[in-house]
Design goal:
The complex is a heterotrimer. Chain A has two domains: 212 residues, 3-Layer(aba) Sandwich (D-Maltodextrin-Binding Protein, domain 2), CATH 3.40.190.10; 150 residues, 3-Layer(aba) Sandwich (D-Maltodextrin-Binding Protein, domain 2). Chain A is built from 15 helices and ten strands. Classes of the chains: A alpha/beta, B alpha+beta, C mainly alpha. At the A-C interface, helix 5, strand 2, helix 6, strand 6 and helix 11 of A face helix 11, helix 17, helix 21 and helix 22 of C.
């Protein structure tokens, strides 16, 4: 891919530069106390891992191949399309462990992607954290992402990383049908999201067509079921008078309050709201079985910019996101699915490998355009 | 011009000319007596020629009035002298120095002109004292000079007032003081009395005349009010349609206008058709002595005060009947219908028992002026 | 006969006669043949204008990359729908704003309505509520399962309110938060209107109603057009409201294009269409305004007019004012307070709030100052050196106002990152971007107040020995200071609300109240959004209220930036 191609041109100059800077970093480290320890730890970890990596051309070229190059100048400029409240603490934790100081610009995933494209070679950003895979796929397509080392990529299931090895998922979320346990039994629930068009569900389903996750789900449906079928489903759903919400949270609250029996949401809202309210709510997630498109699993991901000056630090950061500690943080605090093998999801969650998610390349979810047009045309937006 | 040839060769009943008025024209004055000399001024705004070749001299220490109807270009001429407009052609000399002309256009601040605007243009954010001191260099005499000028205009007690706290007449005097303060070579006054009440106007006029005389200032006054010009000015230039058509002292202007337009503009004029034969003109009032010589069809200028009326029994034959009488106290105005056709107004003293309906004999005092018959009625009457 | 206060002047026809017109009425050719404006005026003005044109150049550049795709995009059916929606929304919002604002302005200037000053101040305050916050609160209150419906559902058993989404909600929200533009503009005009004309009309036997419609309203036409233009420009460039309330207009299409396909070229093409739309609006406004002469502007002493006695009508009048207040101010505030009360979780610490406040005030203050300074040369050129070129330069500054924030933000990202690298993502460049976006507000206010300074004053200063620039500095600027302050205040409060530019161009870690609100609502915690939102509203309201208190000595002086301000 072009991302990797660009990347190959960089190693010598980049290595020379970081060599020069390492000395300064060492001085900083000496004075930085605990942060320095963190850096040493991180360096140790990478050093321990990299030798086992199969050397591919891309990883060979990667500065991260050598632990000596870890740590460079100043702060790691990060663009985050994930909300500060969700990712902020994780970044904080990783600063502690890696010694990297991150400066984060928060914004909308897509606008930050557009910003990176406008900035071109001069982008100050090294690390890009995206809310969904689509934006990452777009940057990859424009050749703006650096290849990630295979050992890092190998830590997550290939469903949740770039086929070209330029971005990687850090946390997963599943689409579910949330239902009120006082009103319905799990046996009352449909086996496919497509069945919600049944007249028996008229006026009883909550959805949030403005929501990005919902739109990704529709994009996935277009890929899996085809354009016409998706349109037909949307039209039948609309005929069934779904109850419209601004977002997933309000749907879950409405279901918990018994206003509606079911709603189409992401899996983790139930837990977030329970944590916020401090009590168990009579709601449960229903996963559609058999690879139903209604159980799409999408990821929040991260990538390193090909032109970035601080690739090593960015890599250290991503590496940190995919350590057991951080994955446990995602699992326990945001109730997202950890993607690292061996880290279990929150106790209440259906394990990831038991979710029969549809088989598709998440990068292809970049075609949001068509989805929005479709939603607009049928009148859902 | 035929009008010129008709001009009287000797004074009829002109009062004694003031000293200096007998000098033929400004151009023949010794150089140092001319404060402002304009030659061939031209100015157009887009397609409109506003000033078309104006020659004008203002004598030092005297007041020149620039008199003309609305739109004749007199204010523009004034602004050309001040440098507030740029010349298209011609030259302006102020105090013997060329300030505007081919290849030269000094900005207003270097021309040594003082200007009094129609709306005074007092700086509303500055006190009277600071308004007056505005044009003075920052020297220690500033305050002395400011006092001096305020004394001159009789506003020494108002120095700390703000402009809006003054009456119209006081504002007028502040504007004059401000213009005089820097000792300009000439003070330009643009319709300075038009914003005053009629009763106030007369007083302020006298005051301004006195202040200018006391200051020994040269002044050019733009006005459309012939009474103002006649009573204030040492010399009057009548401007018409962008040109100066007559420059004269007030008496000469009134009694020997160069044409019908001037005659009608500077005073109450009525015209009687006649047939000129040398030094005599035949009219319905019989033959009248002509000031000057003419032949052919003419219009005879009759000012109301030159018309004499005699009551029927004493005067015989009568040739008119009184149709209207207006009594003004210090004089009265009578309208008579001539038996031969046409009406005339006569201005008589306060006494005299002529009433409406009386038969009278109309005659004319002194020699009359005649202008070649207008081919089409002009609009000046 | 709209020129009040200028008795037909007996002086020359062409030159600047009549005291009331203040040099505005005469044709542009008047100034031709004058000396060129001083270098120190036209050079900075040129720089400012070039800066303003930058986003446009960027758009053209980007759009041209798309090639033939552009035409497909432009001519597809959805574009026509979006165009219709935009036009319809802009027209209805402007109309409704006028319908609210004109009676309010009249009531607060001409009648014995109780608490006139209070109402006049309150009517300008909706400007300080960011429209996205306004939209959120409207949804929370009037949306499905909103506060209003919940309170009605119990006692009255009303299950469903008519949907707030789509046109009705967008229209309502934008009207509620933009009518102050029309109010300010009309109120200023009413104050400046010579009461003698109304008195004449009354003496000729027309009652107050017929006087209003036959005499006052026609004279207010230019002011209404100006205010409505601002309200319409705001409507077409606003993104928050139409997104939250789901109405498909140009800004939303532009954002969707960026957000969904990451296609900057097609987004740029759509944005260019939006610019065209704005240009049409500007021309339409110019046509409506006609060749009206500027009315008297406090040059003379405006007589205080006898207030019209409302009598029984005072109750409906008060009810009307109260309803406007309730919807545009109390409702959003109540929702925010409700969120605040419900949010039991501590939320962000006080430290964070303080840093956001100081960032917001720093950015807003610097931008206000920079805009006030940058607007000066443009305004001076437009007012004192009238001509086709200076008019064109002034118009060019309005482009920033018509562009969605994201477009300006990305234009500066492109230029900043690639050509001004050392400045990129610094406070300096952020301020410049703010200036480009909000300059017209400063130009408008300064232009208006320069118009009120008679050119005679500058000429007087010239004949007293000051240079052209010296005269402007010594006389014009001190007199135009209220306008400069008003313009700066308006820029301040709009910068405080600004989001897209702040997100993309601020120095990293430069969180402001606006980004805090965005961040909190993004994660769905409205309770946490309430604190920064209320703080932002309080801080922005401060200059407005202060201005109205200071200007309070004469009730006749409008508090804030008048909007004719924006264009005259």
């Amino acid at each position: 891919m072009s991302g990797a191609g660009r990347h190959e041109n960089r190693p010598t100059s980049s290595a020379a530069r970081t060599d020069g800077l390492t000395r300064r970093t060492l001085v900083r480290r000496a004075t930085a106390g605990s942060a320095g320890v963190g850096l040493a730890l991180a360096a140790g970890r990478l050093a321990a891992q990299t030798p086992e990596a199969t050397p591919s051309p891309a990883t060979d070229a990667s500065p991260a191949a050598s632990p000596a190059m870890l740590g460079a100048s100043g702060e790691l400029v990060t663009y985050s399309g994930r909300n500060e409240e969700l990712i902020g603490p994780a970044i904080e934790m990783c600063q502690q462990t890696t010694g990297v100081t991150a400066e984060v610009r928060y914004g909308q995933t897509a606008e930050l992607a557009a910003t990176i494209l406008e900035e071109g070679d001069n982008s100050p950003a090294s690390l890009y954290i995206a809310q969904d895979a689509g934006a990452l796929g777009q940057l990859a397509q424009e050749g703006r992402l650096a290849a990630l080392p295979d050992d890092l990529l190998d830590r997550v299931d290939e469903r949740f990383r770039s086929p070209d090895g330029v971005w990687i998922g850090v946390a997963g979320r599943a689409r579910v049908l949330v239902y009120n346990t006082e009103l319905l039994q799990s046996s009352d629930l449909p086996q496919s999201v497509l069945d919600l068009t049944d007249p028996s569900w008229a006026g009883r389903v909550g959805w949030a067509p403005e929501n990005g996750s919902f739109q990704s789900f529709i994009t996935a449906m277009r890929q899996v079921s085809g354009e016409d079928e998706t349109r037909a489903w949307l039209e039948e759903m609309l005929a069934n008078e779904p109850v419209v919400f601004e977002g997933n949270g309000p749907i879950v609250r409405a279901v918990a309050a018994g206003e509606i029996p079911v709603g189409l949401v992401n899996h983790y809202y139930k837990y977030e709201i329970q944590a916020e309210e401090g009590r168990e709510l009579p709601v449960e997630n229903h996963f559609f079985p058999n690879g139903d498109v209604g159980s799409l699993v999408n990821v929040a991901g991260a990538a390193i910019l090909a032109d970035s000056p601080d690739q090593e630090q960015a890599l250290a950061m991503i590496d940190c996101f995919l350590t057991a500690d951080l994955q446990r943080y995602f699992a326990e605090t945001t109730f997202e699915y950890p993607l690292l093998d061996g880290v279990p999801p929150a106790a209440e969650l259906l394990p990831l490998d038991e979710i029969a998610s549809p088989d598709l390349d998440l990068s292809n979810l970049a075609d949001l355009q068509g989805t929005l047009e479709l939603l607009t045309e049928v009148g859902a937006l | 011009m035929i009008a010129e040839s008709l001009a009287p060769t000797e004074p009829t009943d002109v009062a004694a000319a003031p000293p200096g008025a007998h000098l033929p024209d400004g151009k023949d004055h010794p150089f140092q007596d001319i404060a402002v000399r304009c030659v061939g001024l031209e100015k157009r705004f887009g397609p409109i020629e506003v000033v078309r070749g104006v020659d004008l001299d203002a004598e030092r220490g005297r007041l020149l009035a620039l008199l003309g109807p609305s739109g004749c270009g007199k204010t523009t001429t004034l602004r050309l002298m001040a440098g507030l407009e740029t010349l298209d052609a011609g030259t302006v000399e102020i105090a013997g120095r060329l300030v505007a002309g081919p290849g030269r256009d000094e900005p207003p601040e270097r021309r040594r002109v003082g200007m009094v605007f129609q709306d005074y243009a007092l700086f509303p954010h500055l006190s009277v004292a600071r308004n007056v001191a505005f044009g003075l260099a920052r020297r220690h005499e500033t305050k002395r000079r400011m006092r001096e000028v305020l004394d001159l205009v009789g506003l020494a007690d108002f120095a700390e007032r703000m402009p809006h706290e003054l009456s119209g007449g006081q504002q007028q005097r502040v504007a004059l003081a401000r213009a005089l303060a820097p000792n300009p070579a000439v003070v330009l006054l643009d319709e300075p009395f038009s914003n005053l009440d009629p009763e106030l106007r007369l007083t302020v006029r006298r005051e301004v005349r006195q202040i200018l005389a006391d200051a020994g200032a040269t002044a050019i006054l733009v006005t459309h009010d012939q009474e103002e010009a006649l009573s204030l000015a040492d010399r009057i230039a009548v401007m018409w349609d962008g040109r100066i058509i007559q420059t004269a002292n007030p008496e000469e202007l009134y009694h020997r206008p160069v044409d019908r337009r001037v005659a009608a503009f500077v005073g109450d004029a009525q015209f009687l058709p006649g047939e000129a034969r040398g030094r005599r003109v035949d009219t319905v009032l019989g033959p009248l002595p002509l000031a000057g010589q003419a032949e052919g069809a003419v219009d005879v200028l009759l000012r109301p005060e030159t018309i004499r009326l005699a009551l029927a029994p004493e005067a015989d034959p009568t040739n008119a009947q009184v149709t209207n009488r207006e009594f003004f106290g210090h004089h009265q105005s009578l309208t008579v219908q001539l038996d031969a056709g046409g009406a005339l107004r006569a201005r008589l003293g306060s006494y005299g028992g002529i009433r409406r309906g009386d038969r009278v004999q109309v005659s004319v005092r002194g020699a009359v002026l005649a202008f070649p018959r207008a081919t089409q009625p002009d609009n000046s009457a | 006969m709209a020129t009040t206060g200028s008795q037909p002047s007996p002086t020359d026809l062409l030159p600047l006669s009549g005291r009331g017109t203040l040099g505005v009425g005469f044709p542009a050719r008047w100034r031709r043949g004058r000396r060129l404006p001083p270098f120190v005026i036209w050079a900075p003005a040129l720089i400012v204008v070039l800066l303003m044109a930058m986003p446009l150049v960027y758009l053209v550049l980007r759009a041209s990359e798309a090639g033939s795709d552009v035409w497909r995009l432009v001519f597809r059916e959805r574009t026509a729908t979006v165009f219709r929606n935009t036009a319809w929304l802009a027209a209805t919002v402007a109309t409704a704003s006028a319908i609210i604002a004109v009676p309010l302005a009249w009531l607060t200037t001409r009648t014995d309505l109780p608490l006139r000053r209070f109402w006049a101040t309150v009517a300008t305050l909706p400007l300080v509520i960011p429209s996205y916050v306004g939209a959120l609160t409207i949804i929370a209150a009037l949306g499905p399962r909103g506060l209003v419906q919940e309170s009605l559902a119990g006692p009255l058993g009303i299950e469903r309110l008519p949907s707030i989404y789509g046109f009705p909600g967008a229209w309502l929200t934008l009207t509620l938060f933009t009518f102050p533009y029309v109010f300010l503009s009309v109120r200023t005009a009413l104050v400046g209107l010579d009461p003698a004309l109304e008195e004449a009309s009354r003496c000729l036997g027309r009652g107050s109603w017929r006087t209003f419609f036959g005499c006052v309203l026609p004279q207010l036409r230019p002011a209404i057009a100006t205010g409505a233009l601002l309200s319409a420009l705001y409507t077409i460039s606003d993104f928050g409201v139409v997104t939250l309330l789901r109405y498909d207009v140009f800004t939303r299409a532009v954002y969707v294009q960026y957000r969904s396909s990451f296609d900057r070229s097609l987004a740029a093409a759509l944005a260019l269409l939006l610019v065209l739309f704005a240009i049409v609006l500007l021309l339409a406004e110019a046509a409506i305004r006609g060749r009206s002469v500027y009315h008297r502007s406090g040059a003379g002493t405006a007589r205080r007019q006898r207030a019209i006695h409302l009598g029984r009508w005072r109750w409906p009048a008060l009810a009307f004012c109260g309803a406007v207040l309730a919807l545009s101010l109390l409702l959003p505030l109540a929702v925010l307070l409700y969120w605040l009360a419900r949010g039991l979780s501590g939320g962000a610490g006080a430290d964070r709030l303080w840093s956001s406040i100081s960032h917001s005030i720093t950015a807003g203050g610097l931008a206000a100052l920079a805009a006030a300074i940058a607007a000066l040369p443009v305004a001076v050129l437009a007012v004192r050196f009238r001509g086709r070129l200076s008019a064109a330069m002034e118009r060019a500054t309005y482009l920033g106002y018509a562009l969605p924030g994201i477009v300006i933000a990305l234009a500066f990202v492109f230029v900043g990152a690639n050509y001004l690298t050392p400045l990129y993502q610094t406070l300096g460049l952020l301020i410049v971007a703010y200036v480009v976006r909000f300059l017209p507000q400063a130009v408008g206010a300064e232009r208006l107040s320069l118009l009120q300074v008679s050119p005679r004053l500058e000429e007087a200063a010239r004949t007293l020995g000051r240079s052209s620039l010296g005269a402007i500095v010594a006389v014009t600027l001190p007199l135009a200071r209220p306008g400069m302050l008003a313009g700066a205040a308006l820029v301040f409060l709009t910068v405080m609300k600004e989001l897209p530019i702040t997100l993309l161009l601020s120095p990293i870690g430069f969180d402001t109240l606006a980004t805090d609100i965005w961040s909190a609502t993004g994660s769905g915690s409205f309770a946490e959004a309430a604190v920064p939102a209320l703080t932002l509203i309080a801080i922005s309201a401060l200059p407005t209220v202060l201005a109205s208190v200071r200007g309070g000595r004469s009730i006749d002086r409008p508090a804030l930036p008048s909007a004719p301000a924006m264009r005259q």
